[in-house]
Design a protein that fits this description.
The complex is a heterodimer of chains A (168) and B (111). Chain A has 168 residues and is α+β, with helices and mostly antiparallel strands. Chain A contains five helices and six strands; from the N terminus they run E-H-E-H-H-H-E-H-E-E-E. Chain A has one domain. Chain B has one domain. The chains are: A alpha+beta (168), B mainly alpha (111).
Chain lengths: 168, 111
Amino acid sequence: MPRDPIVLYSTNTWLAYAIAEQYYGGNHYVWCTPHFDAASVPSINYAVPPSSSPVEIYRALRQDVMSGDRHSAKILANKGGLSTGAGAKLEAGEITKEQADEILSAIAVADTRSFRPVIFVIPFALVRHRVENVPIGQRAHPLSAEFIIRRLPRDCFDIIGSEGIENV
Amino acid sequence: MFDYLESASARTAVPAGHYAIQFIRQWAKSAARAGLDPSLEGLPPDQLDLAERIVSEIASLEHKPIQEIPQDRIDDYVKLIAERILRLSFTEHGTDPERGREVLAKLRLIQ
């Protein structure tokens, strides 16, 4: 019988974190996995391709941010996701039109550093009742352990890297 | 490319474009790896139609299934789609650069 993981990890952008804190009641939408780094786990226990692990997502995003790549596909995709999220929150009546306009205005002028990566460390025991399995067709690997948490409260995770990325 | 996105409403085109981005970046390859037929699902019909149109156009241009397209080409399409949906979102919400900078300054105070 598989044991519950101890913690889950998720790599996000600082802007996504800050928007959720300010406008979404501190509830964060995250994809997460119990395995931070493919290199630290025997391959028999780890099925996520290295490029999809939280640490590799972190490194790739950090590289784009530090090089100031304004045309980064990852950053543009994140902007698209934040824009979609604001639209969904507006549609659901969770934010006002004025708040949605503010969020979109911020996304429009955000510099690359606003998309610096941050890592959420989420004790599984605190979120056991909140996790949903990612559908097999959407996982990085069919055997990988990947979860979605649609409303992750701020008091259920620690964050690494919010102040800067140079030393992480 | 993707000109039909310009004539769609932001409410339809933005989530459809975002979904298409996720599909071409990861889900198509993931489904193929799992032995599943990569297919789009889980969106309202109008958004699903648009997402399918985006994905079909890319596959048609590349003459191969999405999961076989090299990553650098996928990144090019991600940029194109993202730029389109962002333009729609920004137009829909009438973004104000000064207000945006104020909001960012406020967000930077968050711990």
